[in-house]
Amino acid sequence: MEVEELPSSANESQQQKFNLSVDSEHKATEFRLFSITKPHMRAFHLSWVSFFSCFVSSFAIPPLIPIIRDNLNLTATDIGNAGVASVSGAVFARIAMGTACDLFGPRFASASLILLTSPAVYLTSIISSPTSFLLVRFFTGFSLSTFVSTQFWISSMFSASVVGSANGLSGGWGNVGGGAIQLIMPLVFSLIRDISATKFTAWRITFFVPAIFQVLTAFSVLILGQDMPNGNFNRLKKSGEQPKDEFSRVLYHGITNYRGWILALTYGYCFGVELTIDNIIAEYFYDRFDLKLHTAGMIAASFGLANIFSRPAGGFISDAVGKRFGMRGRLWALWLCQTLGGVFCIILGLVGSLSVSIVVMIIFSVFVQAACGLTFGVVPFVSRRSLGVISGMVGGGGNVGAVLTQLIFFKGSTFRKEKGITLMGVMIIICTLPLFSIYFPQWGGMFFGPSSSKNVSEEDYYLAEWNLMEKDKGFHHASLKFAENCTSERGTKFNTSTIPSHEITLQNH
Question: Tell me: the pLDDT tens digits for 325-345?
Fold first, then answer.
């Protein structure tokens, strides 16, 4: 009787320490959107706002391209090269960011990168040539790597049952910056120009707005945030609660997990496509339909602003199908959503009516952005030990997809933009097919369930990342708790008679 009271008292203690219900890792098992309580919900809001600021800075130039290209005498090739540069810098930076999160914590890694890239945003105001234009876009684009720290931070704060929703909301609302800035920059530019400046001076002054915003969010993350439910990385490492992991081992278990590479390819043609559209869509509508700058910006903004609900919807869908059908449901939902995104992308390039193009673009944006949320509904389960590396690989895949797509279809004048958009849709459909090959031995894959002959459990899968010496030192305890909290990925149809008795006991508690 006394033994049964222990879990109850432990829960009471946890509720006193945390304002949200938590699991055995102290990760939140519920999500309260309008709460700012520390550490879980405060981390959520700091993560999406800081990522939002980086998106704002990275895509502050595209809505003013028609003005900037006249001022600097930019050619279509100059603009295309700079667009590629804006997303290429973050390819390796995202992998590095993932490793930094594993070793130093998401708070320090995120704030450091935001502060390091903010000077490039300020320097945009003094560029005077195609070369300097390309360079500021390249270095500003590094800040998009904060997406990795955002997803790592959220995955460290929220449990398996809600992590897809939390990741979808944080990533989606951050991505909204790419749409919001399409509205903000033309408005701020018009205001400054109307006050007293010429248009070639006004656009330069306008860039102080995103630069200041970016710096403020970095200090907010450092001062107000917390790395993990139980404290910051430095304190946890000093106390021994967070083992000092080896870089080589973390990296090894990340890059040797083939599931991370497939998700990186998939993400290259949902988030990578989103980055590509953010770079070209305002100019596309401006040139093809002969619109005013502000009108083209408003239409372009609707693509990015759809992230307010579309990417979060992907996360919610991932969690919902995960509860019913397990990991297999998450994978099927991702494939279906992203394939439909590819279909509507093809249609967008084929239609010639302004009104129809806008409608198709919005439908396309919903599917391709929801696919992003669905992708990161799967990512947290690929690896516990190398979560940051996997997040970085997948996030970097998004940038690789954007680079390749812009190099192939939107660099110079090889293809008309509408033709490039159609071909990009075909690429989306093709590059989503490898999802069929993802298989988790403890949960199965899209076509096959878990192997009954091997009888692999969640504990077997996640503890395989630790050797005997590391287990003797207790480094695997966090992975063990994570495995216990991931049994929900079996789905409600799973036959509990095949679950080891010690796991049933844990679940009942």
Answer: 999 999 999 999 999 999 999
Distance, CA of 283 to CA of 279 (rounded, Å)? 8
Structure tokens at 26: 């102290």
pLDDT of the residue at 108: 92
The secondary element (H helix, E strand) that includes residue 439 is: strand 439-440
| Residue 444 DSSP label | E
Q: Is 14 strand, coil or helix?
A: helix
Spell out a b/e string for 275-311, using b for 16 or more CB atoms within 10 Å of the CB, else e: bbbbbbbbbbbbeeeebebeebbbbbbbbbbbbbbbb
CATH of 39-232+244-445, one of 2.40.240.10, 3.40.50.1980, 2.30.120.10, 1.20.1250.20: 1.20.1250.20
Residue 158 β-bridge partners = 28
Q: Are strands 444-445 and 439-440 parallel, antiparallel or unpaired?
A: antiparallel
pLDDT at 46 over 80: yes
The DSSP secondary structure of 121-188, one letter per residue, reads HHHGGG--SHHHHHHHHHHHHGGGGHHHHHHHHHHHHB-TTTHHHHHHHHHHHHHHHHHHHHHHHHHH
pLDDT at 498: 42
Q: What is the pTM of this model?
A: 0.78
CB atoms within 10 A of CB 129: 12
Quote the CA–CA distance of 27 and 316 in Å, as a whole number: 18
pLDDT confidence bin for 236, thresholds 50/70/90: confident
Cβ within 8 Å of residue 359, ≥6 positions away: none
Which range, 212-226, 236-250, 275-289, has the best average confidence (pLDDT)?
A: 212-226
**Torsion angle defined by CA atoms of residues 245, 250, 251 and 253, in that order, rounded to the nearest 10 degrees:** 160
CB–CB of 164/373 below 8 Å? yes
Residue 500's pLDDT band (cuts 50, 70, 90): very low
- Contacts for 456-464: CB closer than 8 Å, 24+ residues apart: 457/483, 457/499, 457/500, 457/503, 458/483, 458/484, 458/486, 458/487, 458/489, 458/503, 459/483, 459/484, 459/503, 462/383, 462/384, 462/385, 462/486
Quote the pLDDT of residue 496.
Answer: 42
Q: Helix crossing, 163-195 with 199-206: angle to 10°?
A: 150
**CB 451: neighbour CB atoms within 10 A?**
12
Give the pLDDT confidence of 376-390 residue by residue, as tens digits: 999 999 998 888 889
Contact between 442 and 326 (Cβ < 8 Å): no
pLDDT band at 264 (very low <50, low <70, confident <90, very high): very high
Distance from chain centroid for Cα 305: 16
pLDDT mean across residues, the chain: 86
